[in-house]
Amino acid sequence: MKSLVTVFGAAAITLASANAALSARTDLVIGVVLEPPHLDPTAGAAGAIDEILYANVFEGLTRIGPNGEVLPGLAESWEVSEDGKVYTFKLRAGVKFHDGTTFDAEDVKFSLDRARAEDSVNAQKVLFSAIDTVEVVDPLTVKVTLKRPQGSFLYNMGWGDAVIVAPESAETNKEKPVGTGPFRFDRWARGASVTLVRNPDYWGEPAALEKAEFRFVPDAAAAVPALLSGDVQAFPNFPASDALEQIKADPRFAVVIGSTEGETILAMNNAKAPFDNLKVRQAISHAIDREEIILGASNGLGQPIGSHFSPANEAYEDLTGLYPHDAEKAKQLLAEAGLADGFSATIKLPPTTYARVGGEIVTSQLAEVDIKLEIIPMEWAQWLEQVFTNKDFDLTIISHTEPNDIDIYGRDGYYFGYNNPEFKTVMAELDATVDPEKRNELYRKAQRIIAEDAVNAFLFQLPKVGVWDAKLVGMWENSPIQANDLTKVRWTD
Amino acid sequence: MASYVTKRLSIGLVTLLLASVVVFAVLEILPGDPARIMLGMNASPETVATLRQEMGLDQPAPLRYLDWLGGLVTGDLGRSYTYSTPVIELVRERLAVSLPLALISLFLSTAVAIPVGVFAASRSGKLSDTIAMGTAQIGIALPNFWLALLLVYVFAVGLQWLPSGGFPGWSNPLQAIKALILPAISLALPQAAILARVTRSAMIETLGEDFIRTARAKGLPRRKVLWRHALRNAMIPVLTILGLQFSFLLAGTIIIENVFYLPGLGRLIFQAINQRDLIVVEGVVILLVASVILINLVVDICYALVDPRLRTGR
């Protein structure tokens, strides 16, 4: 009799949990501001592509986890040779692309060779620059030989631009992406939404959501009613930060402030007078008041930074105290530079809110030390051409959203015109170092060099403002890469 | 009548050719490289050059213009740089939203404006006229995006009768129509306000004419005179405004499409300009120019229908 009760009890519990599983929602509408131009992460820089497809549809050899850590992806393990030049990846068995073709070492070779080919239009071709050869050892083993040791190689392989594609579908991924991930591409209603559905044949733990629709909501004013009416249940990057207080007060929603990889800087043209003078750059760094800028340009949510490095990274060093806000000191430095009466310059601003608002605040702060700025607002295309490509600018405000991108300070011909052999040596050393502790030490050294050189005025880390239904769990708090990984997202009751 | 139409048609074609030169030249001057926009800040100049070549942007401008014009003549608008899809296909998708939206708005605004205008004219100077025209004045002053947000908060957030935005596609016609109701109202009301005022003033002018007095004198009922005789003669300015409004509704809905995040033609142009997808901008603009010319042609023919004097060119 007792055992009978147990059996019934167990059956009841099973039924109850089955019911709970049935009643929980399995569909989700996610609001995103920008529509991707196409759906191939290996053929464009637009963050909007990765925001939909990375980790959901496409996977790489490695993957970047919620805190920026490197995790196994399609490679379940790897070995690195003594000299740090040979990486042998052991691939997962039984993985299939969404079109039914089998994933194996040939696909890895194809993807990596395609990305680094002469005629490749991969936006992050530099990620593959260290690769010398890619060899197929057996169907589940790939050997990648590098020209030189590269400490960031495993991290690089986790980028959206390094995902593995199949030769059969590579050419059509822009329209109809075919990957190996837990979600399959279902449809793209251009201008309106991209819909993904669960991949029942996924090699790993299947996703809890059956259907995920990314809906394009370009207008900040439209995002609030979309959320309040329940039409959209999650905004990983909520565009209407003015309305945040109202939403915080509403128990139906969770507001989660995290960090991004976006270092927001007041960039200076180091190749052009008077910004080629260290004292002038230091003066500007002293003249600005970060707190005020953060309050105005990011609703007080951004974290202050003193160098070009994310505070979320374990190698981060707090250098915000190096040039404290001090107008007198700034004036004195300007006088030492022979500019006691100040000077005039322009500040070119891209269309984002942080740049436009930040630019106005910076202009008023610099006016206090007799640096008179003329604000020139421009749209994104113009900014890319004039400032970034032609280097025709004095000052600008921009957020560098690529993860771990301090190496841009070592690039020749980069737009802010910094050239320091010492920094380049550190970058070369970093490239050749695999040991995590030593790498962190080098990262700290690099941060110090550019902070002391006051290459740019470092303002704040762009916050990630996530707003979603309070019953939703598994959304990422931070964005170590531009992605909305939905693999662990589910509804609770 | 035939020669009238032929004349109008050839003027239209010349306008179209001139417009194609202007559109191409203006976009040529616009700063910004589509290849750099696609590849972003981390791509090397070599990669950008490769993509430019792939897009055919390394060719000289006059050559690209002739190429494009040749395509236009054969009905080929080229391929979008960013979407790598034929432009005509993109336009077709967007017209499935913009055209119904424009037609519904036009219908709504006409259905409201003309009766109100006629009514106000017939009671010119009385209190009801003042109230009607005062309301219309507010309607003109009201920015349509503000009206749109107000409607969204009332009908989508508050009452939850209609969606707050987005477009589900025509596979579900009921949902599709529901998605277009609020945008159509937001577009129609300000237009209706203008149209009502034009109708009223045209009617008042016509009602003062001799033939109206004659019609009344021979014993026709007031209502009949108003709707049959006066309205038909007051139609010319009304048709002019309607023609202008339709062009506006087709192309000028960028703001409303943004507020309701509808995938219409306005959004397509806006996105294409931002991404410097020039071939899309060129294609859409030239199609819009063509449609404006066509609408004007239709309006001209309508003039001729309502006013026989125009047919013979007297």
TrEMBL record, chain A:
Look up the domain of life of the source: Bacteria
- Location in the cell: Periplasm
Which Pfam families does this UniProt record tie to the protein? SBP_bac_5 (PF00496)
The residue ranges crossing the membrane are none
Pinpoint the Solute-binding protein family domain residues: 69-401
Keyword Transport found: no
**Keyword field:** Signal
Q: Which InterPro entries match?
A: Peptide/Ni-bd (IPR030678), SBP_5 (IPR039424), SBP_5_dom (IPR000914)
Residues of the signal peptide: 1-20
Give the protein family. Answer: Belongs to the bacterial solute-binding protein 5 family.
Q: What is this protein called?
A: ABC transporter substrate-binding protein
**Which source organism does the UniProt entry give?**
Chelativorans composti
Taxonomic lineage per UniProt?
Bacteria, Pseudomonadati, Pseudomonadota, Alphaproteobacteria, Hyphomicrobiales
From TrEMBL, chain B:
Specify the protein's topology with respect to the membrane: Multi-pass membrane protein
- Annotated transmembrane regions: 95-119, 131-156, 176-196, 234-256, 284-306
Family annotation (Gene3D superfamilies): MetI-like (1.10.3720.10)
Family of this protein: Belongs to the binding-protein-dependent transport system permease family.
Signal sequence span is none
Q: Where in the cell is it found?
A: Cell membrane
What keywords does the record list, in alphabetical order? Answer: Cell membrane, Membrane, Transmembrane, Transmembrane helix, Transport
Give the protein's recorded name: ABC transporter permease
**Does this entry carry the keyword Transmembrane?**
yes
In this chain the ABC transmembrane type-1 domain maps to 95-299
Q: Which Pfam families match?
A: BPD_transp_1 (PF00528), BPD_transp_1_N (PF19300)
* PROSITE patterns for the chain: ABC_TM1 (PS50928)
